[in-house]
Amino acid sequence: MTIVRVELGERSYPIHIGQGTLTTPRALHTLLQNALSLQKVTIITNDVIAPLYLDACQRSLAADSVNTIIVPDGEANKSLEWFANIQTALLEQHAARDTLIIALGGGVIGDLTGFAAACYQRGVPFVQIPTTLLSQVDSSVGGKTAVNHPLGKNMIGAFYQPQAVVIDTDTLHTLPAREFAAGMAEVIKYGIIYDADFFAWLEQNIDALQSKHTDALVYAIKRCCEIKAEIVANDEREQGQRALLNLGHTFGHAIEAEQGYGEWLHGEAVAAGMVIACQVAEQKAWLSASETRRVSTLLAQFNLPVEGPVDMSSDDYIRHMRHDKKVLRGKIRFILPKSIGQAVVTDDVDDTLLANVLG
Length: 359
Ligand code: NAD
Ligand code: GLY
Known about the structure:
single chain, 359 residues, alpha/beta, Dehydroquinate synthase-like, alpha domain, 11 strands, 45% helix, 18% strand, globular, binds nicotinamide-adenine-dinucleotide
């Protein structure tokens, strides 16, 4: 078992990473009982994950009393409607301030549950048990919680930190291949923005990761969580450095919005977006052509797209990017690599340069 700590003063918490934390009876009980009351627990999950992991989770938790709330699968249910349904269910279950809420699932369940926990009786403790690679390396850590609004994704939410995150690498064995690859895009992102050695390690461990070798998974997830924990500890509310975690996301969101959400997975759009960010950095003479090639080669090894949709013009990108949350005083802010292992936030990218890259 590996532990990474997110240091946020009195809101600090551990991330437990290992094999079998969810599937071994009483394993969760042992991990959580010293810090948290397990007398009354509500597990929130979805109808894909429940048949796979809900029984195991309950055996592992060995809590005195467990209620469950099952949300239908899908991003469409990260909604105000399901937020309200969860509040109603918690009230009907007589959940109180000492009830522990557990999010068992990917980023959709984690974001929805976190926001529900932040609001129920002005905040009840919650634990993240992320079951997708994306949620294990990114969304379960750092306290961003949200639901979508018909007028925009993740537009209603709160910063609300969990009490703990528990990651079981075994859950990745049931994850569809495309979802695993989408998570790898976020893993590769950490190498590009923060750690050249980790990027090189990824290049050397493609087969071990593709075959879901436990040691390789634990190491990769641990390194990503360490980097995210460090960034969040420095900049919890995204006033500066945390924005680096959005490498590839500005272009990626434009692709997702243009194609209709759901057509491209988020991680796939981020993969293409990261290559575009490298090409923009190359135009600014920050990155060499060989570094861009290393990024696109690594992404391609995980079957991720390395270019945007062929029919998307630079005007299409710019139109969507003007609505990005990172737009400040009318200027689009870009996350661009300076080299593999280091990135910066800049609004110094003119439309001609963008048009050169985006075609
Ligand atoms: P997801 O939660 O929709 O999960 C992807 C699919 O895999 C779903 O169908 C799910 O039911 C299924 N699934 C989950 N675990 C499984 C398992 N172990 N075996 C089999 N199937 C499994 O998608 P995601 O990629 O995990 O998360 C995407 C969401 O995360 C988006 O809503 C995004 O906005 C959010 N997000 C949040 C943050 C943050 O900081 N809070 C960061 C990145 C992304
Ligand atoms: N996924 C970006 C962040 O947590 O800040």
